[in-house]
Amino acid sequence: MTLATEPEWKLDSRGDEPEDERNLGGHLVVLALYSILVVGIAALSVVTGRQLPRRMSTRDLLLAAVAVHKLSRTITKDEVTNPLRAPFTEYDGDGGPAEVMESPKYRNGARRSLGELLTCPFCFDVWAVAVLTVGRVFAPRPTALCVDALAVLTGADFLHLAYAKAQQVAG
């Protein structure tokens, strides 16, 4: 039971900190985590003698962009990946076809920033690009296969949407 005299931020918060609209501390933690992972993986590539990939062809760039798009939407919007987001997000309702809308559970801190990251495909793109880049360095063939598969899934998604639209027009 909450007291009516408690500050408004405490009544709505899931943490013990007041709301900070910009959440700079939480974003700094997530940025530090990303930086540590990137530097650590770069150091590992040097220690193991991995060669960096050569410049990507136009085809590879386009496929990678489509793959990153699909990977980001899969992680941030698909119902089936909800268990990954659930510790940091709340269900708000249905999104687009086969997608959900969620928002961060917490009002401040690193958990809020993780909730924002896991609900925003645009924000998650940077992480998805990093994953595929690491894959190109350490496992180029399996990564290429995954990029191709994600690109095919994106094409299939657009075909599903076009088919549904055609049904609406015809029906």
Keywords, separated by commas or semicolons:
single chain; 171 residues; mainly alpha; two-stranded antiparallel sheet; 2 strands; 6% strand; disordered N terminus
Overview of this protein structure:
The protein is mainly alpha-helical and 171 residues long. The chain has seven helices and two strands; from the N terminus they run ααααββααα. It has helices at 8-12, 24-47, 58-77, 82-85, 109-119, 121-138, 140-170, and strands at 89-94, 100-104. It has a two-stranded antiparallel sheet. Strand 1 and strand 2 (100-104) form a beta hairpin. Helix 6 (121-138) packs antiparallel against helix 7. It starts with 7 loop residues before the first helix and ends with a helix.
Global geometry:
flat
What topology, given as strand order, has the largest sheet?
Answer: 1-2
Number of helices: 7
Q: How far is the N terminus from the C terminus?
A: 54 Å
Radius of gyration: 20 Å
Order of helices and strands: HHHHEEHHH
Main sheet characteristics: 2 strands, antiparallel
Summed over residues and divided by their number, the pLDDT gives a mean of: 89
Strand content: 5-15%
Helix/strand class: mainly alpha
Secondary-structure map:
Blueprint: H1 8-12, H2 24-47, H3 58-77, H4 82-85, E1 89-94, E2 100-104, H5 109-119, H6 121-138, H7 140-170
Antiparallel strand pairs: 1-2
Helix pairs in contact: 2-5, 2-6, 3-6, 3-7, 6-7
Summary of the model, kept short:
With 171 residues, this protein is mostly helical. It has helices at 8-12, 24-47, 58-77, 82-85, 109-119, 121-138, 140-170; strands at 89-94, 100-104.
